[in-house]
Inverse folding.
């Protein structure tokens, strides 16, 4: 057989009690009497029908793929590994299970980034690097030892690190990906949580710089996502460990908070000589944060490859290009490109909404918002940017009619489809049932092309809404929002919990949807790259978070970016090779020149 191919059976999906083994009945080697697809024999003892195993020696490989087609539950994947991949796995979870190739290299004094999709083995790699699991080098039948792992990595940059893990010398602190789960695991105030983790006496400084003070005595359960994210960061960074693993720092944080978090992490690595490994999907922030970068690619759920370290600039550039040079590996058919120049003013379509100056306050001494009058055009994608707590959701609720302005009249009667920032879908309902209750287009080839495929919904259709991960829930919520019949689509932070590839896909789904339906879309998001790819114009919020906010009228991209970034005091330069925007070092020559010229983004 093609010995560069692997068979992966998802045992959560393989349900022989509901099929009649079409996979093995139709498998060509099986039909000639060979034992390619056989029964595992594990469930028989419990009296249930047996799940299947596939012999990778006998299987004919991806070009056959008959079992993949026949399986009604999408439980089987047959994948030809790229021929460029000439190494053995670092770890394989078992027969026909996920395999990981390569390992990231943590280094004291430095921040190492991993850029790649979810489900590609990042957590698996970290468990190995933390010494929680001995990688089996693909020999899942044998008891793995650190000696054999050391043999594998002798002479590489990992040798020294692996020796220390073997000797039990590496301690780890980690920040989980889904901070929303923290209240389920911890009772008490933010201060209680933080004090238990303050091993370096650094807590007060983190509370101050991450602006946690105002909520530190509040119950964890009452904190917003952005507050939880900052508490979780402080709790992780305040520990006294050798190796810090941060699985995404940006969800729910605004750009100012993201930049602060990035600086604190860099300081920890540089000044305290610690090794930090981060997974981050906001590329502008990853660029600022990491010293070196591993790109991870493969087939989520089936296999993942962590490349050797690259410089951050090269790593991100190659990733965007879709081609990894050293590895001679294409990871995406097309490149992702950015406009170097601000888009020219487009001829305007019909106005959809013309609104007057508005004001809204939540009461005496409470937050107040004022909104400059403006026009939103049919068919445009309007980006909305500004810090957290500045009134963006308040404006969304004024438009949906959930709030009434104190000053100004909104007399339009528009159907608005709204995806909130925090997605609560707790109905015990399957994804397909939920989505088909929203649109009768559900399942049509048109809907599949426009919505289900780019949002990668096919593999989660049969899952329960309550069992979905953060990223899966986000994709279902975006699909639900776009599937409704409406005049205006309003999406609040669609990038949260999506990996980079999913952000790109979601961006093009939203853009294409707007173009094909003459639909008007307003998107609130903090990911600058996503905004750049998505928005035609920008509405910029400024003011003092939690106290008062001001919303500008919709502006052209250049003016809007200048307005927004001058508030943040951040300038972007262009990468010479790919033209992608990169955050300038504060007070560098370019930073000063651009500020003097008033060109913060399209310099
Ligand atoms: P990431 O952190 O990149 O999202 P993970 O390392 O958590 O990815 O998981 C990679 C793959 O390994 C997933 O498809 C997951 O289902 C699979 N996996 C994780 N743990 C196990 C396990 N104990 N047994 C079998 N498969 C596993
Ligand atoms: P953003 O969407 O920009 O993060 P919001 O519009 O959600 O900002 O909130 C702006 C400010 O208004 C915040 O300080 C928030 O706590 C406050 N706020 C929001 N809703 C209410 C309410 N119902 N009553 C009192 N204050 C509120
Ligand atoms: Fe059999 Fe392999 Fe073909 Fe599947 S892909 S039917 S296991 S030969």
């Amino acid at each position: 057989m093609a010995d560069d191919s692997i068979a992966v059976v998802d045992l959560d999906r393989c349900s022989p009690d509901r099929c009649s083994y079409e996979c093995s009945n139709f498998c060509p080697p099986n039909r000639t009497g060979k034992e390619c697809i056989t029964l595992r024999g594990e469930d028989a003892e419990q009296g249930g029908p047996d799940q299947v195993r596939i012999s990778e020696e006998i299987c004919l490989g991806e070009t056959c793929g008959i079992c993949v087609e026949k399986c009604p539950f999408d439980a089987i994947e047959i994948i030809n590994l790229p021929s460029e991949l000439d190494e053995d796995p670092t770890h394989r979870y078992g027969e026909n299970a996920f395999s990981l190739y390569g390992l990231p290299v943590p280094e004291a004094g430095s921040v190492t980034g991993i850029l790649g999709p979810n489900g590609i083995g990042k957590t698996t790699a970290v468990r190995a690097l933390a010494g929680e699991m001995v990688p089996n080098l693909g020999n899942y039948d044998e008891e793995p030892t650190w000696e054999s792992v050391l043999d594998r990595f002798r002479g590489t940059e990992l040798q020294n690190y692996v020796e220390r893990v073997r000797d039990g010398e590496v301690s780890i602190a980690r920040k989980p990906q889904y901070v929303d789960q923290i209240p389920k695991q911890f009772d008490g105030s933010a201060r209680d949580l933080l004090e238990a983790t303050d091993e370096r006496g650094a807590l007060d400084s983190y509370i101050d710089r991450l602006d946690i003070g105002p909520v530190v005595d509040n119950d964890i359960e009452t904190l917003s996502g952005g507050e939880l994210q900052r508490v979780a960061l402080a709790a992780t960074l305040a520990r006294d460990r050798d190796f810090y693993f941060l699985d995404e720092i940006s969800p729910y944080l605004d750009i100012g908070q993201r930049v602060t978090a990035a600086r604190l992490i860099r300081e920890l690595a540089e000044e305290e000589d610690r090794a930090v490994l981060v997974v981050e999907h906001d590329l502008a922030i990853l660029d600022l944060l990491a010293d070196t970068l591993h790109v991870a690619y493969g087939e989520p759920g089936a296999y993942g490859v962590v490349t050797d370290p690259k410089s951050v600039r090269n790593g991100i550039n190659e990733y965007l290009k879709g081609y990894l040079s050293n590895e001679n590996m294409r990871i995406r058919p097309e490149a992702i490109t950015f406009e170097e120049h601000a888009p020219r003013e487009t001829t305007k379509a019909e106005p959809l909404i013309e609104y007057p100056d508005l004001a809204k306050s939540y009461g005496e001494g409470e937050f107040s918002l004022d909104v400059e009058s403006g026009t939103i055009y049919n068919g445009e994608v309007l980006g909305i940017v500004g810090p957290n707590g500045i009134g963006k959701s308040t404006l969304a609720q004024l438009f949906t009619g959930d709030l009434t302005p104190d000053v100004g009249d909104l007399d339009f009667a528009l159907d608005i489809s709204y995806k909130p920032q925090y997605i609560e879908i707790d109905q015990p309902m399957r994804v397909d049932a939920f989505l088909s209750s929203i649109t009768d287009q559900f399942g049509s080839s048109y809907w599949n092309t426009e919505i289900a495929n780019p949002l990668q919904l096919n593999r989660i259709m049969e899952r329960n809404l309550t069992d979905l991960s953060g990223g899966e829930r986000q994709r279902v919520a975006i699909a639900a929002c776009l599937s409704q019949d409406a005049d205006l689509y309003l999406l609040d932070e669609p990038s949260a919990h999506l990996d980079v590839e999913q952000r790109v896909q979601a961006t093009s789904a939203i853009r294409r949807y707007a173009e094909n339906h003459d639909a008007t879309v307003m998107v609130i998001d903090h990911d600058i790259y996503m905004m750049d790819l998505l928005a035609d114009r920008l509405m910029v919020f400024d003011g003092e978070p939690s106290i008062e906010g001001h919303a500008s009228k919709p502006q052209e991209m250049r003016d809007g970016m200048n307005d927004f970034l001058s508030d943040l005091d951040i300038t972007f330069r262009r990468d010479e090779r790919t033209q992608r925007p990169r955050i300038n070092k504060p007070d560098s020559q370019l930073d000063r020149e651009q500020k003097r010229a008033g060109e913060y983004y399209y310099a």
Remarks:
- The CA atoms of residues 409 and 531 lie 29 Å apart.
- Residues 93, 97-98, 118-124, 301 surround adenosine-5'-diphosphate (ligand 1) (CB under 6 Å).
